[in-house]
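User: Sequence recovery, please. Input:
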């Protein structure tokens, strides 16, 4: 069992930046960020695998978001730049195989 706690959500203006972090109670080789926007299914934002450090991004995240992890601290980060109102969502951390955090709200105002 892996417990996850997300930090860093909040309200930011259009074009602003936020960094989310997710602290895990244990190590898993793959960690991901997902989001759920109002009226839509939860969707993958980005993921990172260890030890290869392989990263994957959703198309909407490429060039704006960066996922990283500190394996010594079992923490994964999501740096989000140039945020847009359509990025408003609850962001969830996921640890392989299927452990989820409770989510953190990100609101981008226009």
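Assistant: Recovered sequence (110 residues):
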């Amino acid at each position: 069992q892996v417990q996850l706690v997300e930090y860093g959500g909040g309200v930011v203006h259009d074009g602003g930046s936020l960094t989310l972090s997710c602290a895990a109670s244990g190590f898993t080789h793959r960690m991901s960020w997902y989001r759920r926007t109002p009226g839509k299914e939860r969707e993958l934002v980005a993921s990172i695998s260890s030890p290869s450090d392989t990263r994957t991004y959703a198309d909407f995240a490429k060039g704006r978001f960066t996922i990283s992890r500190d394996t010594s601290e079992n923490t994964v980060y999501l740096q989000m730049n140039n945020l847009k109102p359509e990025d408003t969502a609850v962001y969830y951390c996921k640890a392989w195989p299927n452990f989820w955090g409770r989510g953190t709200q990100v609101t981008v105002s226009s």
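Residues 23 and 99 are 12 Å apart (CA to CA).
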